[in-house]
Write a structure and sequence with these properties.
By secondary structure, this protein is mainly α. 66% of the residues lie in helices and 8% in strands. The termini are far apart. The model has no long low-confidence stretch (mean pLDDT 92).
Length: 161
């Protein structure tokens, strides 16, 4: 009599799953390194610095409360604080008191910070296109978007635990 097919043990990966995980992990880390290396080489800024600068550029008045920057980046408050301190020392951002809440402060984009974004964005976008979009067909891009959205949904649910 044939045996019933058993569900895989959720605590172990199959050989195929291990291969997929390794490939995804190497791709994700390599993508981050490629973006960071291009920014460092061409503009002397890190991907983390550009992430903060982009959040500020897109914000009303080009400023954000620290808590909003924490929410937008997904970083710990201490990481945001250290990053902002380094960026303020370089003249990219400045701290501003919050009139509404004495315990809070704003992080504001400076002219130098805005100039970095304006100069860095074209090459950064070209790197994203070259590494992420060019290797994929239009159909593969649609599939990748769907996969990414599904994974982001799972991650959001996990974060809510």
């Amino acid at each position: 009599m044939p045996s019933a097919r058993q569900k895989p043990d959720p605590r172990k990966l199959t050989a195929e799953e291990e291969e997929l995980f390794r490939s995804f992990y190497v791709m994700r880390r390599g993508f981050d390194r490629a973006l960071d290396a291009q920014l460092q080489r061409d503009h002397g800024v890190s991907i983390s610095e550009l992430e903060v600068l982009m959040a500020l550029v897109r914000s009303p008045g080009r400023r954000l409360r620290v808590r909003d920057l924490v929410a937008m980046t997904g970083w710990e408050k201490s990481r945001v604080s250290h990053q902002v301190t380094r960026m303020a020392a370089r003249g990219f951002v400045e701290r501003e008191e919050c009139d509404d809440d004495r315990r809070a402060s704003y992080i504001k984009l400076t002219g130098d910070g805005r100039r970095i974004v304006v100069r860095a964005l074209p090459e950064h976008t070209a790197t994203i296109r070259r590494v992420l979009f060019d290797p994929l067909s239009a159909e593969q891009q649609e599939q990748f978007l769907e996969i990414s959205q599904r994974m982001n949904d799972v991650i959001a649910r996990e974060d809510g635990l």
